[in-house]
Amino acid sequence: MAACTISMLDEWKRQLAIEAKNKSLTIEVSEEFRELTSDIIAHTSFGTSFAHGKEAFNAQTKLQHLIVASSSDVFIPGTQYIPTRTNLEIWKLDGKMKKSLKCIIESRLNSQSDSSFYGDDLLGIMMDTKNDGSNKLNMNEIMEECKTFFFSGHETTSSLLVWTVFLLSLHTDWQEKLRQEVMQICGMEIPDPDMLSKLKMVNMVLLEALRLYCPAIETGRMTSKDMKLGDLMIPRGTVLMIPIAMIHRSKEYWGEDSNEFNPMRFINGAYKAAKHPNALLPFSLGPRNCIGQNFAMLEAKTVMALILQRFSWSLSPDYQHAPVHNLTLQAQHGLPIIIKPLHL
C-alpha cells in the first residue's frame, strides 16, 4: 500500500517541480485514486503476478461499467444470448478476464515445488485451501473470489478517498487537525498498523465521509422464506432494497445536522454515533457484509496519512459538484484540487 502510494506522490512532486516550480499544482485526483487502488489491490491479490492480475482487473472494471450502462434497458428474456454489439463486448471482456485469471492460477500451480504453500498473497492463501478438506475452492470459485475482492477493495476505496479529500478541501481546519495527528503519531515515517490504529481523528473523518458519500448507495437482500416485517408480510424470494444513502442522512437517526460534515459525532465510535447502533451501513452488516471492509479502511488510512505528511490542498475553482452513482458514488466531473508541498 505504502509503496504504491509513495510512487503516486513522488509523481506529484515531479510534476510540481517541472510545471509549478514547487509552488502549487492542480491535479484531478479521482483518476489518480482509481489507478492507485487498482495497483494496490493487484499487488495484494497476486504479488509477483501483479501485471497479469491488473490486466484481468482492468477487463473486469470495463465489464462492470458496461453492464451498469445497459442495466436501465428494458429486459426482454432471451436477449442476453443475442449477439448484439453490447453483448459481444461483454462476452469478449468476460472471456479476457477469465483467461487472464486462469493463466495466473495455473502458472502458480505449475511453479510451486511445494504444493502445500502457494504464497502469502490473497491468491496463494485461497489456493492453499485446496488441501483444506470440505473448505477447498475449485478454479471457478477462486476466480470469483478474486473478482469480488477486487471490486470490494478497489471501487469502494477509490470512492472513499475521493470524497474524503473533497470534504477536507472544504473543511481545511479538519485537514490541519488530521495532519497534526499524523505528524504526532507517525512523523515522516511510513505508518505501520500500530500507528494507523492510533489515528482516531483520521478514522472519524473517514467514517463521516462514508456516511455523507457512501460508495454503495443501496444494497439488496432476497428473503429465503416468508417473513413478517412490521405489519408487512414478505413472500419468499422477494428482493428488498435497503436505501443506505437515505438512512445515512436521516434526521431521525442522525439529528438535525444529518446533512452537515461533523466527524465529532464518531468520537465514541460508529455504534454510538446515531440513535440506532446500526445506522451506519457503508459496508452492510451481518454475515454477508463487505469482505473488503477492513482492507478498505486500512488502505484509506494509509493513503490519507501519507498525503497529509507531504501536501496540503484546496478545492479547484473548476470543480463541479455532481455526485453520480456508477457502480459506486463518484464525482461525475472528477475532483480537481490544488496541491502545495509541505516539505521542499
From TrEMBL:
Keywords recorded for this protein, A-Z: Heme, Iron, Membrane, Metal-binding, Monooxygenase, Oxidoreductase, Transmembrane, Transmembrane helix
Compartment list: Membrane
Q: What is its main location?
A: membrane
List ligand-binding residues for heme. Answer: C290
Source domain of life: Eukaryota
What GO molecular-function term can you cite, just one?
A: monooxygenase activity
Q: Which family does it belong to?
A: Belongs to the cytochrome P450 family.
State the needed cofactors, names only.
heme
Record membrane topology: Single-pass membrane protein
Entry's SUPFAM superfamilies? Cytochrome P450
Gene3D superfamilies named among the record's database cross-references: Cytochrome P450 (1.10.630.10)
Q: Does the keyword NAD apply?
A: no
Q: What organism is recorded for this protein? A: Pisum sativum
Q: Which InterPro entries match?
A: Cyt_P450, Cyt_P450_CS, Cyt_P450_E_grp-I, Cyt_P450_sf, Cytochrome_P450_Monooxygen
Name listed for the protein in its UniProt record: Cytochrome P450
The question of whether Zinc-finger is a record keyword is answered with no
Pull one GO CC term from this UniProt entry.
Answer: membrane
